[in-house]
Amino acid sequence: MRRACVIGSGPNGLAAAIVLAQAGLRVDVYEAEVEPGGASRTMPLTLPGFSHDFGSAVHPFAAGSPFFNTLPLAEHGLEWIHGDAPLAHPLDDGTAVVLERDLAATERALGEDGKAWRRLMQPAADDWQEFARDSLGPLLRVPHHPLRMAKFGLSALDSAQGFATRHFSNARTRAVFAGLAGHSCLSFDEALSATIGWLFGITIHAVGWPIPRGGASAIAQALISYLRSHGGTVHTSCRIDAAAFKELEADSELVLFDTAPRQLLAIAGDRIGKGYRRACERFQPGPGAFKIDYALSDPVPWRAQECRRAITVHLGGTLEEIAASEYAVAHGRCAERPFVLAAQPTLFDTTRAPAGKHVLWVYCHVPNGAAFDMSKRIDAQIERFAPGFRDCILARHVSAPATLEAMDANLLGGDIGGGALSLRQMILRPTLRGYATGTRNLYLCSASTPPGGGVHGMCGFHAAQLALRQMKKS
């Protein structure tokens, strides 16, 4: 039986392993850490009985993944939980903008901007599976719906600031779109920042913003269970260095790397050609994340009670404030009033904390590798919209960029997106070849390849398919 190896057990590595196993190869996955899953791990970071997501927490792209949805993951223990609403965005007047999964309800809630919101979101939301196949696929291909994707692609040239002010007249709608665009880790005057905001807005109505019961590790465990049912094996606490790689490659038809490009170079060494090596060395990481996990005695005491309806809460105020926060990060500074992304899973999943207690997951963007402690600034932003929050804190675990990288070597400088999301790196991710390294049997399948960051497995899916096609030709 032909053998393949995957280095790294994040969702992309596991997706690649599954594709290879489905094709009849004997597949081994090697994970450096004790627990598999890459950034999709759930860990006891604070007090006994409190389970915190190390990396990803809320998973619209996993729930809507064109590949994951072909797998019977429910039979392997994955259960999705939705909040009463996908997203809340509190404001200083004590109210919150709430985006409902139901598009008609959101249209009503947004008032004068409701029709514009529906016009932007409905076509792709109504045809999510086809849209997702196109938007989460390799860049250089013919899409299933060329005209629709051409229209969507034109927004790549737009900035979040320009997009929001052109399409929406109300400050509340502009604010909630700014929170969506904030997921791009880009300054709001940069191309692609509007695209990411638009894409996240579509997912709200297409698939919702759910969490897995028990935490993010449930995604990895379901994928591993399915992989094992096809004969695959996952080896943990097994860090692959250059010497170990030589042994693996000698015994394998294919080796796929669910790693950052620089990790691939460190492991594969002189097996990588000069041209591809230069491209990987030029590939730039994105901004870092500064993350705090809280163990709480009570739910977050939001001034706007509507915030308790949503698992995800965006904290940043107006479009202008969020834009200022992301502009500062893009220009090498830590924001005085950071845009904070928060998730409160225990409002809807009581398995994650002792009875009556809660966890809160939050992070903000900082310059890559920043050493500044953002704890007080994050606390202040939460307290701004939830007076009395500090009194609920039982314990906290702070993860600066260096901490994140130490816990997952792919998170270079705290970069959670697999590389800076610039137009250049959207096209050259990390090269025009995408997954192929130029070395016959070696492929890159991480978030540093198309379509980029997010727990969807599509980087691994497409890389493995390419590897199988090229293996058959050789």
Fold and architecture overview:
This protein has 474 residues and is α/β, with parallel strands linked by helices. The chain folds into 2 domains: 3-32 and 238-284 and 419-473, FAD/NAD(P)-binding domain; 80-211 and 287-407, Alpha-Beta Complex (Polyamine Oxidase, Chain A, domain 2), CATH 3.90.660. 37% of the residues lie in helices and 15% in strands. The chain has 18 helices and 16 strands. The strands form 4 sheets. The protein has a 7-stranded mixed β-sheet, with helices on both faces. Strands 9-2-1-10-16 form a 5-stranded parallel β-sheet, covered by helices on one side. A two-stranded antiparallel ribbon has the order 3-4. Strand 3 (42-43) and strand 4 (52-53) form a beta hairpin. The protein is globular, with a radius of gyration of 21 Å. The two termini are 17 Å apart.
